[in-house]
Amino acid sequence: MACAIEHAQFNFVAVACACAVVRDREGRPADVTPFAMGAAAACLPSLPDVIEPALHPNHRKFFHSVTVFAALGYGLHRLYQWETEDDWQRLARMVGLIAGAAYLAHLTRDAFTAKSLPLI
Length: 120
What we know:
Shape: globular
Structural class: mainly alpha
Mean pLDDT: 93
Largest sheet: none
Order of helices and strands: HHHHH
Number of strands: 0
Number of helices: 5
Helix content: 55-70%
Distance between the termini: 19 Å
């Protein structure tokens, strides 16, 4: 079972790299945004464990499942495509993308452990 520090490190690297790739594909100039997004995601290392506490090695149920991973991935895709109209919507979109990416990074890290992720 990965600890919070390992999850924080993985979240930073995964989210920063994903953000950098997206910005490059969109033709945006290089800046500190990927590092800021990665740092914000690193602040949420155990989001799934807040919902489903890691009290024992077999704690992974629905909120640590492949089903939630797929649904959250689709939700993040839709959130990324959201055309915001004002500042609060841009902020809500950014917070949602960071929290969702942190959650997905956590599940990705858990998927590569011996217990892996249940289907449902």
